[in-house]
Design a protein that fits this description.
This protein has one domain (19-96): Phosphatidylinositol 3-kinase Catalytic Subunit, Chain A, domain 1 (Ubiquitin-like (UB roll)), CATH 3.10.20. The protein is 26% helix and 25% strand. The protein has 3 helices and 4 strands. The protein has a 4-stranded mixed beta sheet.
């Protein structure tokens, strides 16, 4: 074996973090049946991407929806999946906000 045969097999900590995947369980809070979707996402994915994907799967508008933690804390869309999981866990709720503040 040459010296170069092992090059590229060890990843830096940043590369390892980018390869981590997390499984998120997202509940549609506006539906009385509380349907759930399980999403596997890379740790470096923006949470805004997860919001868009989950909203599409539930058939709600992503632009007027929010993700909340189990304790009701709103999640900033600039965060990554790994930062959300480490801070709040893997159980999230999707809240469509299309009727909030509407004058009917």
């Amino acid at each position: 074996m040459s010296k170069n045969s092992t090059q590229g097999t060890e990843n830096s900590p940043g590369e390892q973090a980018a390869q981590n995947h997390f499984v998120l369980t997202i509940t549609l809070a506006s539906d009385p049946r509380l349907p759930k979707k399980v999403i596997r996402a890379p740790g470096d994915a923006p949470i805004s991407t997860i919001l868009s994907y989950a909203a599409e799967k539930f058939g709600v508008e992503a632009a007027t929806s929010a993700l909340l933690t189990e304790s009701g804390v709103g999640i900033g869309l600039a965060q990554t999946v790994s930062s959300v999981v480490w801070s709040y866990g893997t159980e999230l709720s999707l809240i469509p906000r299309d009727r909030v503040g509407a004058n009917s």
